[in-house]
Amino acid sequence: MINLEEVKRTMQELKQMQSLPMEIKLSMTRQRIREWVGRYGVNGVYISFSGGKDSTVLLHIAREMYPDMEAVFVDTGLEYPEIKEFVKTFDNVTLLRPEINFRQVIEKYGYPVISKEVSKSVYYSRRSNNPENIYVKKLRGELEFEGKKSQYNQEKWCFLLDAPFGVGNQCCDVMKKKPLHNFHKKTGKVPITGQMADESKLRSQKWINNGCNLYDSKYPISNPMSLWVGNDALEYIAKNNIKIASVYGEVIADCEMDGQMWLDGYSPPKFRTTGVSRTGCMFCMFGAHLEQEPNRFQRMKITHPTVYSYCLRPWDSGGLGMKTVLDYVGIKY
Ligand code: SF4
Q: In this predicted model, what pLDDT tens digit does every residue of 192-225 receive, in sequence order?
């Protein structure tokens, strides 16, 4: 017999819900926020605000419902300067800072490169002499699941073990998570984020495991926009004429969504930004190998030449020494 609890959230259900019209997902988002506030009170929650377009949409939705809700921005020093300027235009935003800067993170743990999972495997494999260590096995392509080669093997990135620089996955924890966890410890407040399941396999899996609102955890978290996809946020921005950080440029409608089935024949236009499509950390190399040219570094060379020079300048000359890393991995700049 099928256990309904076990099939409550599946990948198939996630896909179906992601294909709903934005307005329906917006109602669900409001409902999740209402439930979160119902549990913790408006003074017991905060909006995790990165200054990016998705969290700007979240801030707009949440403050239409609760105008006094606090927002929190972690000033990592890695954001586009335009993002920091944009954040300053909002009231009631608390600024947090990490305990160490990006150079110190690299020095202590290594560069964040390719992905969190790959950086983690390289970091721990280099510190292990055990051939049965899970990270060693992943990089050797030896991980098995039910007698077959696991999809989580990473042998393609095995060459990073010989890289003449450190590689590590701790950057996000130190620069972003720790300041927020400290804030939680100090104030007891719990976050509402603009995260979408669509952004990664890990986030999809988290939605399947926890849904949008995770209450029973050391760090409770609400992700009320989990079911949105990137185009929804742009649609919301365009429809509501919301101001977003200038580095994105304008939001414009392009053409019909290609190759996607939409429920009830609903087919919203495809929106895009005329400037950058993502903000996040300027110097981050996660995912840069997947980008079409001009990639983030090639664009940075044109739009932010001073920051670009700092990134590529050799470590011993006071830069971040990323030229060596990008050359080694084969990312153009
Ligand atoms: S996104 Fe990249 S640069 Fe930013 S905190 Fe995480 S690992 Fe560091």
A: 999 999 998 889 999 999 999 999 999 999 999 9
Q: Is residue 144 part of a domain?
A: yes
What's phi and psi for 286, nearest 5 deg? -60, 125
How many angstroms separate the alpha carbon of residue 61 from the centre of ligand 1? 26
Q: What domain range is 319 assigned to?
A: 291-333
Tell me the pLDDT tens digit for each residue of 277-301.
889 899 899 999 999 999 999 999 9
Same domain, 153 and 215: no
pLDDT digits (tens, 9 = 90+) for 29-42: 999 999 999 999 99
Residues 183 and 299 grouped into a single domain: no
Core vs surface per residue 88-104: b (16+ CB within 10 A) or e: eeeeebeeeebeeebee
Question: DSSP assignment, residue 175?
Answer: I
Task: Please work out whether the CB of residue 288 comes within 6 Å of at least one atom of ligand 1.
Answer: no
- 257 domain-assigned: no
Answer yes or no: is pLDDT of 257 > 90: no
42 CA → ligand 1 middle, Å? 29
DSSP one-letter code for 271: E
Distance CA 102, CA 78 (A): 8
Domain match, 80 and 190 both: yes
Q: How much is the pLDDT for 264?
A: 52
The number of domains in the chain is 3
Cβ-based neighbours of 309, under 8 Å, separated by 6 or more:
319
Q: Do the domain assignments include residue 277?
A: no
